[in-house]
Amino acid sequence: MSRVDHMDVAAYALGVLDEQDMERFEEHLATCWACAAELESMVPVVGLLSDIDAESVTALEQTHTNPVLLDRTLVAMRTHRRRARFRQILATAAAVVVFGGITGVVFSNLADSGTAPQIAGPTSGPVQVPNTGSGDPGDPGVGGNAQEGRKVNVTDPTTGVTATFFLASKDFGTNIAFTLGRLPGPRECRLVVVREDASTEVISTWSVPQGGYGTNSNPQQLSLAAATSSKLDAVKHFQVQEVDGKGAGKPLVTVPAN
């Protein structure tokens, strides 16, 4: 067994021998238990060394007799390893970017399709439920939060003022939430409760600016709330009135209570 034959173990494991040298080494391997044992021990690391080619092995063999070449080879090997590690980092970063992009697209598609995952957690403040309307052609289109109580839509045929009232019976009396539109200004207004026994009560007053509410100048409607101690079944109707300089009221729109 020659020294060269023994040194062929690594080259054979890496598959860098030519066909003739490979056959020669296999003949040697059949009678040399030392090389067979060494070859078996190298199997786990062959994958780690798979990127070393025949030129690298030849260069390593030459370094045994040439110290200068040894230094150059070591520098080259270190550079090779650094570049390999750098390529691995770039590949990992690219994979993260691609995965992040795919994830963003998936979540975007889920959000667009209305099936975005809901995340449970503590919330603060009141939950607002939009008022989608009743479908009544006379409904002026009240927006905002869902209101409590029976909904009544009225448009006065004379003044053109529109009103949407939400009437809710309470232990204290009646709660009223209302919205007014097509109400020009400037003027002073009030909300009056007219009871079944013909008695009246003013429960809210306000002023209308120059542009009015629900008009061409100001499309925004006026939304207010009020309450009365009168029970709803004791109320005949609610009336929005314009108040003149002497305090007299002129009806703008009347809303039945029942």
TrEMBL record:
Is Transcription one of the keywords?
A: yes
| Highest taxon above the source species | Bacteria
Annotated region (Disordered) at 118-155
Q: Which organism is it from?
A: Micromonospora maris
Keyword Transcription found: yes
Task: Name one matching Pfam family.
Answer: zf-HC2
Give every Putative zinc-finger domain span.
Answer: 10-35
Q: Where is the composition biased (Gly residues)?
A: 135-146
For this protein, the record's InterPro entries field holds: Anti_sigma_zinc_sf (IPR041916), Znf_put (IPR027383)
The name this protein goes by in its record? RNA polymerase subunit sigma
Q: What keywords sit in the KW lines?
A: Membrane, Transcription, Transcription regulation, Transmembrane, Transmembrane helix
What transmembrane ranges does the database entry give? Answer: 89-110
